[in-house]
Amino acid sequence: MSPQDETADPLQPHSHDPNPAPPSEDSSFKLVGVDGRSQTITVHDLQQLPKVSVTDCYIVSTGHGTSGPFTFSGVTLLDFAIRFCGEAWEQLEVVSADGFGNRVFAHELHQPDPAGPMLLAYEMDGEPLTREQGLVRMIVPSERDDALRQVKWVGAVSVVGGGKIRP
């Protein structure tokens, strides 16, 4: 893929208008396999995987400024992908319930940034995330200046290339 193709990708880092209203009180989200089949993932499902905490994370929201540092806890996106998508996937598309999304490549998860692994977080500072905080949100610890990759209110994770949903 050429650099021009990547900049045109709506799931690559990009600015977006702030959404001050949470789209839903439901913290579950859809996992969509390559074949289009989907299953619902809940916080309870995430809690069955190893819990990881990453300190010194910041939230940089469009129109809201920077807040933090926080300690986010949840499951690494890699552990999630291995458990629910198998090991043959190439990309995950993580999209919020309000339509903002991010594309994550397998190599990014297998070689995490020194700041910490990407998380599907369900806790902040030892407490469950509230509806306003995102319920389940994708945290990218290496982001300090902009949060163009972080996804609040995860609504769907779609598997791209080779993966399949495990029953």
Description:
With 167 residues, the protein is an alpha+beta fold. It has helices at 3-8, 43-47, 77-85, 106-110; strands at residues 29-32, 38-41, 52-61, 65-76, 91-96, 101-105, 119-124, 127-128, 137-139, 154-160. It contains four helices and ten strands. The strands form two sheets. A five-stranded mixed sheet has the order 2-1-10-5-6. Strands 3, 4, 7, 8 and 9 form a five-stranded antiparallel sheet that branches. The N and C termini lie far apart (32 Å). The longest helix has 9 residues, at 77-85. The chain has a single domain, classed as Alpha-Beta Complex (Sulfite Oxidase, Chain A, domain 2), CATH 3.90.420. It is 15% helix and 35% strand.
